[in-house]
Amino acid sequence: MKPSTRHDYLQRIDRVIALLQSSVEQGVELPELSRLAAAAHLSPFHFHRIYRALSGETVGQTVARLRLLRALHLLTDPDGRVTETALAIGYDTPQAFARAFRQAFDASPSEMRGQGERLQAEIERLRRPPAVEASQVALKVEVVSVDPFRVMAMRYTGHQVDLDRAYERLFQWAAAQGVLERMAGIYGVPHDEVRETPAEQCRFDCALAFTGDAFEGDALVWPLALGGGTWARCRHVGSYNALDLATDRFIADWLPGSGHALRDELPFRHFLDDPEQTPEAVLRADIYLPVEAC
Question: How many CB atoms lie within 10 A of CB 222?
């Protein structure tokens, strides 16, 4: 099968945006995930991840942008009422619409209606998603076979900036078990898209690999299998807080034209440095994406 190009992927994203725009303009319920993914010829498992990487915004941000765009078009009608505009684009109340509108434009709907040139300029700005340019620095990506391996994992749910505390608890657990000297690697498995999921609900498995004989977990920590099959690997250097953006770039710059598609499995990260001992600018982590040949 011929590898999909970046242009092909962007056309798929455009089909999704067209579906969302049609729903917003008709004032009907938004399409379900399965329908959006089918329109893009993507697996629902990775749809949000690929959509965000290639469009530069989340699905929720696209919907908000399209609703505001529709509102601006409706405001060009001098006889239209703000209340009707709010309900027509999916807001429950005129107050909720007014808040969102002022946050976006620093003006009320009535004030915007009186600024014809600005109104048209904002319409043009919101017609397309934010531009996502390919990086000028070539990514070094390896497609590798990874044998399954076992880690001991602890689930953390909450804001990702607090992950260091979760890993601290995991290290304390390993020390209490007397296995800290057997540690062979630090890993992480993000379960949720941090820009699609409320911060307090984001799930992340903190994990440690150990040498020697396997051992049992407990209520806090349990065995987890990682790897197995083919993976695309890319090295990230810099703040670990930038790993989500680095993954977006990995997908946007490498996946189109690679001849590979993402398998329905969670990506994982291999942390190569300790943030407490290594300057943030030179921290290293390998990002692993599950792939298969197209």
Answer: 15
CB neighbourhood size of 188 (10 A): 23
Helix (H, G, I), strand (E, B) or coil at 285: strand
- Domain boundaries, given as residue ranges, for the chain: 6-126, 141-293
Side chain identity at residue 270, one-letter code? H
Q: Any idea which architecture 6-126 has in CATH?
A: Orthogonal Bundle (1.10)
pLDDT per residue as tens digits for the range 79-127: 778 778 777 888 888 888 889 999 999 999 889 988 989 999 999 999 9
Q: pTM value? A: 0.89
List strand residue ranges (DSSP E) for 72-161, in order: 141-145, 149-157
DSSP state of 17: H
- Do residues 147 and 230 touch, judged by C-beta distance below 8 A? no
Q: How much is the pLDDT for 110?
A: 87
Helix or strand or coil: residue 233? Answer: strand
CATH number of 141-293: 3.20.80.10
Q: Residue 40: is it exposed, middle or buried by C-beta count within 10 angstroms (0-12/13-18/19+)?
A: buried
DSSP letter at 162? G
Predicted local distance difference test score (pLDDT) of residue 1 = 43
